[in-house]
Amino acid sequence: MYNQENCRFAKTHEWAFVEGDVAVVGISDHAQEEISDIVFVDLPKVGRTVKVGENCCVIESVKSASEIYAPVSGEIVAVNEALAADPALVNREPHAGGWLLKIKMTHPEDFNALLDFEGYKATLQK
Amino acid sequence: MQEILIKNELSIEKSRPGRRGVRYAKAQKKASDYLPAGYLRQENPRLPELSEFDTVRHFTRLSQQNYCLDGQFYPLGSCTMKYNPKAYDTLSVLEPFAKAHPFAPESAVQGTLEILYNLQELLKKITGLAAFTLQPAAGAHGELTGILTARAYHDAHNGANRTEVIVPDTAHGTNPATANMAGYTVVNIKSAPNGCVDKEALKAALTDKTAVVMLTVPNTVGLFETDIREIAEMVHKVGALLYMDGANFNALIGLAKPADFGVDIMHLNLHKTFGAPHGGGGPGSGPVGAAEHVAPYLPQPLVTFENGHYTLAQRPESMGKMKAFYGNIAVCIRGYCYLRQFDATTLKEIAENAILNANYVRARLKGKFNAFFDRNCMHECVLTIDPHSMNGVHTSDIAKRLLDYGFYAPTIYFPLIVPEAIMVEPTETESKEMLDAFISAMERIYEEVCTDAQVVKEAPHTQPVRRIDEVSAARQPNLRW
After folding, report:
1. SS3 letters for B246-271?
2. Which CATH code is given to the segment(s) B100-341?
3. Within an 8 Å CB–CB cutoff, is residue B467 touching chain A?
4. CA B199, B202, B203: angle at the middle one, nearest 5?
């Protein structure tokens, strides 16, 4: 749905896909693999405003809790309710059903500052 | 190996209808004679029906399966699982202590107050700080006490606008939780490549909004903050306070005084370093000490000695009270025994041997299991592995395989900044023979990784329960039988 090629990425492994002025946010395939079997996703409240780089979500696996940082600034307008019953969705479909939240952007230029897929891949090889 | 035919069942699985321990005479009245109908159960509770002998065997068997420090080596990093002299157990529950009424007048408990006062004095002596409270019931409770004390200090010094607490990523995990719980915004800073605080990052984070910087010394990668004096100066320059998490004080006791580093507030764990058991689910004790300028804001009461009389003194500027009565007295008495049993020279040797033992393990395992930071460590060494060069074996597999060799697994996957972390804290109370046995087990496991990785990946093989499906357990927890 939100193909890797069409998404922009933060160095901290979140992706964003823009639909109008709303950014759909998730974590990269690489990130879900590193985190391994996800057992719980602590999603933020809808209506909260976040700044780029702010911790907005926590993903727990059996071995760690990982903080997820907002790739763009704005208001959280939706969270993926399906993850409450099936957190493994993030492992299975990080770029589709496993999206985390939607942010209505206040600074659309944030999106342009993110890396494209090729640029993100290059950071992983270092 | 011989097959064991007795099943490892839950008590409810062992239950047989009608089986009883004690048979009571039939009750004259029913519950409904006493209770209104709305409070009566509709069905009988589902309790196991067992004979007394079944019950004794069930719990004895469980207790024998329980791994404990008194039975074997327990290298759980960051936990200081060391031997605690048994005499303290007897002394700490002597009748005058154990049976004192919490509301007894001071004149009736002068002995207990004297011990608490002397313990405060001894803790002051080994840390160089000006005052100590013994109220906090554990380490994290001590942290919260310390941070609330700092807030009381700032409130009294026009510092109410200070809303941030800086915590490096080498701090104990409880530090950011504490700052958050105390109402502060947590500012995380990354450590430098040498495992210590990145001074540039600290400099950038320090502002007039900074209330406290929380440092764990030695930090969770087992390293001493070599530039702590300079760090303290930077912190003080912006009017903030330096908090030291002293949970790892076993590496410093008798060697260094935190007051000399410029520490303003710190906590100690009596149940780690000072002769009280750790890891039994409590009780613990996390005394908090403060330098002269912060001391008035510590919790009240503190034990004072005036005119030949020990008193629980109220303090006008205090941040308040952190616990009912005066802390976990029995744990405090153990801490007092510890500091009376060992003189200054011996305390120094304790720290030195804790450091020596950790470095011995680190150096002997080098080449097979390498330290994440390749330098001398303090009380614990943090090892790392790369599963790609270990036939796909992960740290969790090694930890489970260690159980087969009769050892408790070290702390794993912590600290978070070390990938596949294995954190070993041997403590000073282990002999060289025990350390050698542990090292041999680790070497054997390394051989297995190279020749037969599957045996490691499927471990444990000899435990009452084989590998647990942790993912399913976390995703679909079945909390009732």
Report:
1. ECCHHHCCCCCCHHHHCCCEEEECHH
2. 3.40.640.10
3. no
4. 85
DSSP string, B382-402: EEE--GGGTTT--HHHHHHHH
Question: What's the rounded Cα separation, in Å, for the pair B166 and B178?
Answer: 12
Q: Tell me the residues of chain B between 395 and 434 that have a Cβ less than 8 Å away from chain A.
A: 396, 413, 416
Chain B CB contacts of A85 under 8 Å are: none
Cα B358 to Cα B103, B223, B253, B423, distances in angstroms: 45, 11, 16, 10
Residues B471, A64: C-beta atoms closer than 8 Å: no
Q: Quickly name the fold that domain A14-108 has.
A: OB fold (Dihydrolipoamide Acetyltransferase, E2P) (2.40.50)
**Residue A110's pLDDT is what?**
92
Listed by start position, the domains of chain A span 14-108
Classify each residue of B112-125 as buried b or exposed e, where b means 16 or more C-beta atoms within 10 Å of its C-beta. bbebbbbbbebbbe
Mark yes or no for CB contact B474/A62 under 8 Å: yes
CB A52 within 8 A of CB A110: yes
What is the DSSP code (8-state) at residue B105? Answer: -
Each residue's pLDDT tens digit, B275-297: 998 876 679 999 999 999 999 99
Domain chopping of chain B, boundaries: 11-65, 100-341, 349-475
Model confidence pLDDT, tens digit, residues B407-452: 999 999 988 889 999 999 999 999 999 999 999 999 999 999 999 9
DSSP calls for B347-360: HHHHHHHHHHHHHH
Q: B2 pLDDT exceeds 70? A: no
pTM for the predicted model, two decimal places:
0.87
Q: Min CA distance, B25 vs chain A (Å)?
A: 51
Right CATH number for B349-475 from 3.30.1780.10, 3.40.1010.20, 3.90.1150.10, 3.40.190.10? 3.90.1150.10
